[in-house]
Amino acid sequence: MWNTHNTTYEPQRFNSLVATSVNDSATQAASAPTGAKKFAVNQTYCNGFQNIYSLAQCTPDLSSSDCKKCLSTVISQLPICCSSKIGARVFAPSCYIQYEITEFYNATGVPAESVPPPPLPPVTLPVPEGKSAVSTVLIIAIVIPIAVTIVLFCMGFCFLRRRARKTRYCVPENDGKEH
After folding, report:
1. 101 and 16 part of one domain
2. What radius of gyration do the chain's Cα atoms show?
């Protein structure tokens, strides 16, 4: 999706600044530490009157390298669809990129730097009699990453849903009376 208005600033320079801004956001989002949200915003100076604001986000289930690949794919669509446009959004199932010349995100709500959660202490469980220690460790090694992935995915889904609600506009219902 793109804004129908073109920039009044030098189009080639503007497109170059957009590329820099979205690539910086993508790099920051993809390089988030394990357990942190793969989300980043960027503000790039354009001229005395205008900045370019960009946002990049991946779903929590993606690894850093898969996040970077996904964001690179959506960014590669910008010159095709949105050259010289003052704003655009490109979605993929697991990532999202947006840029605008107006600040479209709450800058005070974005942490300056995402701090990863502290590492979990190692889990040592007693081995029940007659059972192999390998099977207990294997079960734990499978269940914990799945649980963490589900929690992170739900957090990302909730963020996107909350964001989608904020962009809806209310239209008064017609009560059948002429006004």
Report:
1. yes
2. 22
- The tens digit of pLDDT for each residue in 110-123 reads 655 543 444 444 54
pLDDT in tens, 69-87: 999 999 998 888 888 888 9
Contact 40, 11 (CB under 8 A): no
Tally of domains in the chain: 2
Based on the fold, state whether residues 17 and 92 are members of the same structural domain. yes
Residue 112 lies in a domain: no
CA distance 162 to 171: 19
Provide mean pLDDT across the span 34-39: 83
At CA 164, angle to CA 161 and CA 170, rounded to 5?
125
**Six token digits for residue 142:** 């499978």
- β-bridge pairing 39-47 and 50-58: antiparallel
Rounded Cα–Cα distance for residues 47 and 134 (Å): 62
Q: pTM score, two decimals? A: 0.58
